[in-house]
Amino acid sequence: MAQPLWSRALQRARTLAPGLLLCAVVALSATFVAEHYGGPQLLYALLIGLAFHFLSRDPKIRPGIDFCGRTLLRAGVALLGLRITFAQVSALGWGTGALTALGVASTIALGLLLARLLRRPVAEGLVSGCAVGICGASAALAVSSVLPQTKENERFTLLAVVGVTLLSTLAMVLYPLASSLAGLTPAQAGVFFGATIHDVAQVVAAGMMLSNAGDTAAADSATVVKLFRVMLLMPVVVLVAMAMRPSTAADAGDDEAPADRPVPLVPGFLLAFIVCMLLATSGLVPAALASSASQASRWLLVVAIAAAGVKTSFEDLLQLGWMPVAMLVTETLWIALFAGSGLLLMAHWG
Questions:
Q1: DSSP letter string over 147-159?
Q2: Residue 214 pLDDT
């Protein structure tokens, strides 16, 4: 006799609860440290999670950790769509939009090129290029979620999260100074920050550094350009998913799915991202709800990165060597040079 639906749901919840609670506690700890002492919340979640790696071997905890690292991650990415509207994108103008899109595309292409030159897997070039080119840790996690779920990919994704978070924090400090030395206006500097800095929080912080006496041009332009880059996450991940798509769920590493179940052409969470973006554009979503969804998205991503940290050890990260770090640094320098040169040319010919 088949179990009632509520009974199966209760059993599933009991199975996931230990791992879920562990990841939630790690995420809460990271949030507390970030709010009281400053610093990147995602990086704290990763580092604290690494300290609890020994618990990942417990069969009672592992299911909840895997659920956080996959299902909650995808839900967090889907909710990012509520932050973006087509009106924000159209306000950029074709020149700024083209510069930003080309910067993203060229950075991803550079990641693939570096992976080939350094004889690294294609997946590493995609994760690093998208993380630097689009939106830092969120992009690294989103792209990784549609790649084959291997131990090597998980290790590299965590290193990419650490790398882009540190580089983004460094850029937040250095780029406002560099833009002032280059003679950029606040609005131009904001475009530069939005087109080059990896994480949203650091983009806003850099823009606020140049927002003096109520002039928020830098912060406003930085935020809009950055949201445009976040919007590009969806089509990029769709293309990656289609290019790397296995023929069956078994090939994809989904142990819970039947071996003969086909993998969808476009993952469901990306379709949810599109729906959320359309809802935000329509104006049907109240501002308070959109703000709450944004906070929920951030929280889900923090829990997901906590789970990824628990699943990985320091020894795993050290095994990757220096090449992934060189890839991230090179890509960061490239997108900054590309956007800075493009802005100067636009200013000269404009």
A1: S---HHHHHHHHH
A2: 56
